[in-house]
Here is the input.
Amino acid sequence: MKKILVTGVAGMVGSHLVDELLEQGGYEIIGIDNLCFGRKDNIIHNIGNPFFKFYNVDVLDMETLKILGKDVDIIVHLAAVKKISEKESALPTLQINNKGTENVLELARMWGSKLIFSSTSDVYGMSLDIPFKEDGDLLIGPSMIKRWSYAVSKIFDEQLAYGYFRTYGVPVVILRYFGGFSPRSSFTWSGGHIPIFINAILKDEELVIHGDGTQTRSMAYVSDLVHGTVLAMENDQAVGEIINLGNDEEMSVIDTAYLIHSLAATGRELKVKFVPMEEVFGKYRDITRRIPDLSKARRLLGYSPRVNIREAISSTIAEVRNNLNASTGK
Ligand SMILES: NC(=O)c1ccc[n+]([C@@H]2O[C@H](COP(=O)([O-])OP(=O)(O)OC[C@H]3O[C@@H](n4cnc5c(N)ncnc54)[C@H](O)[C@@H]3O)[C@@H](O)[C@H]2O)c1
Here is the structure.
């Protein structure tokens, strides 16, 4: 039995990771989350399982972490404040992502745990070196633009993780997740375009596209991110490495909207509104293409994405539709 601590357990990736580990068996899981973004509903079905314990704890609360982290074999650190919109302060992103990661690295050092850190494709920034490779340069925009704070916080965390690895020998693995989604995604800005589009199309609402929609993304179903994470947990070759995880299928934002509309088959017209980039992001330049090079994940972990974008969107539509029908009593 391996003892695992998952931070950010009530979020999208964390809650699906717990489902997977409990299904595989052989893991005793301690999950923590302060529920600032995550939802207890995402994990409620596992509460009462003797191999899963949930604690409403903040990653900034080091005293409690020290107790919960005792004798943990692997920490999967997912708790973070993700992308922020222009209306929000950048401080929670910078402070929680950095202090929280330092706390879990300290914890791993204290109890001799392996640490899996969830970084992001955002760190590649405006790099034009497509597909993005782990040893490529990171091209970040000016500090006056707060949208960059998320990428910068994760780059700092990656360096901190390497610092603990080299200085104290803490076995760390840095996973750079590319966009993932599931029916448990947030339907707000931070959950990415696919959940927002699905929600809007099912509710017959106008779909808002930033720019002309030709920018492309490579989106993965959450099960692929979870699968790669479990492979990294179990693989000693991954220690000290940065590894891209996700799906390398590329699709433009506008084509994704058309695909969702056709798969949802609502019988209603697609309503799209294009909003100029500057209106949404100010001086921030959106990333035109974001595609992972997955060769390292394939070679080191034996990873490859298993769910294509069509299947992923179809099953998300089905579950979101059920949830909407249940909430409206249909
Ligand atoms: N989902 C993606 O597409 C994606 C892509 C790249 C990177 N990531 C990274 O993967 C990780 C998980 O992403 P996700 O999509 O599940 O995000 P999420 O927002 O669904 O989950 C993050 C969880 O962390 C919790 N949290 C935030 N601050 C906390 C704190 N101070 N103490 C305790 N809990 C706290 C939130 O309540 C939430 O449940 C994040 O670190 C994110 O940056 C995700």
About this structure: The chain has ten helices and 13 strands.
